[in-house]
Design a protein that fits this description.
Elements (H helix, E strand, L loop, with lengths): L1 H15 L11 H11 L4 H14 L3 H5 L3 H8 L5 H17 L8 H4 L7 H12 L8 H11 L8 H14 L5 H14 L18 H4 L16 E9 L1 E2 L2 E6 L9 E2 L2 E4 L5 H11 L5 E5 L5 E4 L3 E12 L7 E3 L9 H10 L7
Parallel strand pairs: 1-8
Antiparallel strand pairs: 1-5, 2-3, 3-4, 3-9, 6-8, 7-8
Bound molecules: iron/sulfur cluster (SF4).
Length: 349
């Protein structure tokens, strides 16, 4: 069955593979960039980010010689900004410490900062034909359906089982194609909802299809509760400039945003006035709400509920930057979206 499965999946890939720009190269630098971008976005959006990123930083050296602000600007909107920072860190490491020679084995590639099992497996198999299976949501789904694997895919203890299964099925040749074939097959044929079983060329091997249990798979345990966080941003203007501050840590580290009060619960106007009064050491602070409804922003582990407030402060504010043009400042998408929505209503931008 093993050979048969890999043959079928490679045959399907040869006829149906998507034409994507990173499939025209085996350059590990470009494959690395594409894999990191695609971890957090759909193919269509990821392709335009990839093209922009590669045209701005066409080689590992060009990325290694750039500064963080430039890289974050190119990454703006993709989220997970630590990935961009890690890309830069690792590019500098390869350039400065490894003589610009990209590592060529899974065990060396995975040592790069920001590179996990998935990315190391993808680069090693696609660029160097190493027999290292990748596991993403598509692969989990396909394998769990074909073999009726009951192990919940969101438990780390299941990982080893799926990894071994994927490896046992992997062809010794065309390892990179095999990995990409499984992922493409999962996203185009064995889809989460409404899989195309009727036209599927591996259906005769697929246990869940034979037993009519397809939609039972993949198995998941109930999810951890996603937390909610309340963000109250203030829009402070002076001479047609708006105050922004650099974020010191967390997922948005080194990006910029409006000053904020972050809480685990919804805060009252009075509380916020006192908070900013204290923060800016002011005798008087007045705030007024700009968006009546919370703007929700979903992250993988957190829902952010945000409000934006106009503010009047009596004294001068020393911390932060007053800017009239945000173009050179990487900002979380939440800030950009707010600006887009309210820029005509507000005379601050
Ligand atoms: Fe997926 Fe259906 Fe094909 Fe089985 S028969 S692999 S469930 S598309």
């Amino acid at each position: 069955m093993c050979m048969k499965f890999s043959e079928l999946i490679l045959n399907w890939y040869d006829e149906n593979k998507r034409n994507l720009p990173w499939r025209l190269t085996k350059d590990p630098y470009k494959i690395w960039i594409s894999e990191i971008i695609l971890q957090q976005t759909r193919i269509a959006q990821g392709t335009s980010y990839y093209n922009r990123f590669i045209s701005r930083f066409p080689t590992l050296e060009s990325l290694a010689n750039s500064d963080e602000n430039d890289v974050l600007l190119m990454w703006q909107g993709l989220g997970y900004y630590s990935r961009a920072r890690n890309l830069l860190f690792s590019a500098k490491h390869i350039h400065n410490d490894l003589g610009s020679k990209f590592p060529v084995t899974y065990s060396e590639i995975i040592k790069l900062k920001g590179v996990g099992d998935y990315t190391a497996s993808a680069i090693a198999s696609i660029c160097f034909e190493e027999q290292t299976p990748v596991l993403d949501g598509n692969v989990y789904r396909v394998l769990s359906r074909i073999f009726e694997l009951e192990n919940p895919i969101n438990l780390s203890s299941s990982r080893k089982i799926f990894k071994e299964k994927a490896k046992s099925l992997m062809s010794a040749k065309r390892c990179g194609d095999y990995n990409q074939a499984l992922m493409d097959f999962g996203s185009l044929v064995c889809k989460p909802q409404k899989p195309l079983c009727g036209s599927c060329n591996v259906s005769k091997l697929c246990k869940s299809f034979i037993n009519n249990t397809v939609l039972k798979y993949p198995v998941k345990t109930s999810k951890n509760k996603i937390k909610t966080q309340y963000h109250d941003y203030i829009i402070l203007t002076k001479d047609r400039k708006t105050l922004i501050v650099k974020i010191e840590d967390g997922i948005w580290k080194n990006l910029y945003r409006f000053p904020v009060c972050i809480s685990e619960k919804k805060q009252s106007k009075l509380y916020l006035q006192e908070y900013f009064k204290k923060k800016y050491n002011s005798s008087k602070v007045k705030i007024s709400l700009i968006n009546q409804k919370f703007i929700n922003h979903k992250l993988s582990h957190l829902t952010l509920k945000s409000r934006f407030w106009n503010i009047n402060i009596e004294n001068n504010v020393a911390k932060g930057l007053f800017v009239s043009d945000f173009t050179d400042f990487p900002m979380p998408q939440l800030m950009r979206n707010f600006r887009e929505k309210y820029k005509t209503k507000l005379s601050i931008f």
